[in-house]
Design goal:
Radius of gyration: 13 Å
Largest sheet: 7 strands, mixed
Order of helices and strands: EEEEEEEEEEE
Distance between the termini: 40 Å
Structural class: mainly beta
Strand content: over 45%
Shape: globular
Oligomer: single chain
Number of strands: 11
């Protein structure tokens, strides 16, 4: 059974940093790409960043140079380091593998 469990969200002020974690189980973690997505109130879910099995990364333009996705294959964990947070980054952040989603973790950034 595939499980993705996110953590690390919280409420911070603009300019702060947070690191999200997603621990996965139920598949061969090291062989697959994973992604972080987010959904703000009243908006559709959108891609934030992806990382391939080899560590190649891709980012939404809105988070480039502020967010960093990484993975630790020894811990079956994918991370999202978020810096210089802005109020518009407020959303529920989800980890995704193919069609499987985690439960999400809330990030709230106040100005």
């Amino acid at each position: 059974q595939v499980q993705l469990v996110e953590s690390g969200g919280g409420s911070v002020q603009a300019g702060a940093s947070l690191r999200l974690s997603c621990v996965v189980s139920g598949f061969t973690f090291s062989a697959h790409s994973l992604g972080w997505y987010r959904q703000a109130p009243g908006k559709e879910r959108e891609l934030v960043a992806t990382i391939s099995s080899r560590g190649s990364t891709n980012y939404a333009d809105s988070v480039k140079r502020r967010f960093t996705i990484s993975r630790d294959n020894t811990k079956n964990t994918v991370f999202l380091q978020m810096t210089s947070l802005k109020p518009e980054d407020t959303a529920v952040y989800y980890c995704r593998w193919t069609t499987q989603w985690g439960q999400g973790t809330q990030v709230t950034v106040s100005s």
